[in-house]
Amino acid sequence: MFEHCVVAGGTGAVGRMFADRLAASGAEVLCVDPAATGPGAVADDICAPGPATARALAGADLVLLAVPEAVALDAVRPVTRLMRTGALFADTLSVKEGVARRLRAEAPGVQAVGLNPMFAPSLPLPGRPVAAAVVTDGPAVRDLLALIADWGGQVVETTPDEHDRQTAAQQAATHAAVLAFGLALGELGADVAALRATAPPPHRTLLELLARVASGTPEVYWDVQAANPHAEAARQAVGRGLERLGRAVAGHRPEAFEALFDELRSTLGERNLTELADACADSFARPR
Hints:
By secondary structure, the chain is α/β, with parallel strands linked by helices. 58% of the residues lie in helices and 14% in strands. The protein folds into two domains: 4-158, Rossmann fold, CATH 3.40.50; 163-252.
């Protein structure tokens, strides 16, 4: 299926996850990274491939870029010029439409798909969703998505634009809400240890989310907020939601507060409301 693969950024967490999976599936994998060392790796710039990297790109069945967006955009032309007919170009960017536009302009005949594992690479892949934003479909795209499914990933196909709009809600709005919650605790002078001692399940869950985000790499969360063209609208929507809540309470209008709940139930829909509420109840019932 994929005998020869090049993974640019293969020393990073996401690139390493895919490189290891591909190697375990029988592929010969070359990791290209300026900081790469050791066997199966070459220290090189994917935007200006040296002789060894160029040979590997020319013979690859799959070239996967697990690099920042600016690097991926600059790499599209030199990489696709070297790829053979029928080979697959893939990326793991958190924002898809930019690289999709570049691929359509620079390499319209190259099969391409953007992958976004919707979980931290430190977590196991089986059972977790992997968004697949198809740019140019073809047999190699189908083979890669089938391989990810064989690994146990839950492949969810989308378009680059749909992907970016969805992740603005899933990631940008979510992270903004969690970060704002943490900043509010700081402004309130909260004693987190004291909060934990009596925290009801919703508060405890938010504290856990805040701790997970705060212990992560800021650059990852910066990319979510800064690179997605729909992230600003998502943050503004979160802010407007707080303002609407504040107006309902400040105006001493319980009917307006109740109307907000009616709106929330409508947004969720009956089936999602029931299933998600049950899932939350199950989660809260587990002892910590």
